[in-house]
Specification:
The chain is α/β, with parallel strands linked by helices. The protein is built from eleven helices and twelve strands. The model has no long low-confidence stretch (mean pLDDT 90).
Length: 291
């Protein structure tokens, strides 16, 4: 098996016929057919069934094609990395962040960092905390900002920030008139909850249970920004951190302090056993300034 055979197989699968594959590759159709047969001999199984002169992928061929696509995704990543090195030199920073801080803290920190380091290539993704943790633990990303409920094995962890929990209520809601909301005030109120595994939700539920409060959960979401948007739309109330709620205040959402001493806590995580680069240390300082 060689790469040219695999490439031709992939083009045939993508285009459906050897004739079309030959056009795309600028070779003859017999050359494509010969390459496919050579590949089948080297693999030891048929990639296609030949019915009335047409190729139909076998189950083995379909399975092999999926593996080929995985390999080509890796090549696509390498091409992207090569392009970044060509355009920006050796500087690169790969950052993943939970959604709640991706629209406020991260843009401010990145703006400050990039103004001083215009030649550093930045890769940024906003994902769920569990996904961010996996990306960092596997070494695909240099830095992650996550909520504290993640599995902390396999990553290096440092505390980053904490925000006191507030209650987001729709503008004009009866609760919007209060200076402070108690847990009892949420009894029976339509409530937009964080995901069940969220630490802040678990702590809030413990408070509600202790006080006999029964909130009426109408929606669950892992994203604080989604809670803010749903509150602003009038769907219900929810527990939010003031920083995430900032863009929504006065635009459908009123922010009221919550009587309980609950906090949203975030962590910085990095791959294990990796020395932080100068760029990474500098960016972490920018994050702390932005927070």
């Amino acid at each position: 098996m060689n790469l040219r055979q695999v490439e031709i197989f992939r083009v045939v699968m993508t285009n459906g016929t050897t004739a079309r594959a030959a056009e795309v590759l600028h070779v003859s159709q017999p050359a494509v057919s010969k390459m496919i047969k050579d590949l089948e001999r080297s693999l030891g199984f048929d990639l296609f069934s030949r019915i009335k002169g047409r190729l139909h992928p076998t189950p083995e061929g379909q399975l092999f094609y999926r593996e080929v696509e995985h390999a080509y995704l890796g090549l696509t990543h390498l091409r992207g990395a090569a392009a970044r090195i060509r355009d920006f030199g050796s500087g690169e920073l790969r950052i993943a962040c939970l959604s709640a801080l991706s629209t406020n803290v991260l843009p401010r920190a990145l703006s400050a960092f990039m103004s001083r380091n215009p030649n550093v290539a930045i890769t940024f993704q906003a994902r769920m905390s569990s996904t961010v943790r996996d990306l960092v633990a596997s070494g695909q990303f240099d830095l992650g900002i996550v909520a504290d409920e993640i599995d902390q094995t396999g990553v290096t962890v440092a505390e980053f920030s904490q925000f006191r929990v507030a209650v987001g209520v729709p503008d004009g809601h009866p609760l919007a008139k209060l200076e402070m909301i108690r847990p009892q005030d949420l009894d029976g109120i339509p409530f937009i909850a964080l995901a069940p595994e969220d630490t802040t939700r678990e702590e809030a539920e413990a408070v509600f249970e202790r006080l006999g409060v029964k909130v009426r959960v109408v929606m669950e979401t892992p994203y604080s920004t989604t809670i803010c948007a749903m509150v602003a739309a009038g769907i219900g109330v929810g527990l939010v951190d003031p920083l995430t709620a900032e863009p929504y205040v006065g635009r459908g959402l009123t922010l009221i302090p919550f009587e309980t001493g609950l906090y949203f806590r975030t962590l910085l995580i990095t791959p294990p056993n990796r020395i932080a680069s100068r760029h990474l240390e500098e960016f972490v300082n920018d994050l702390k300034q932005a927070i």
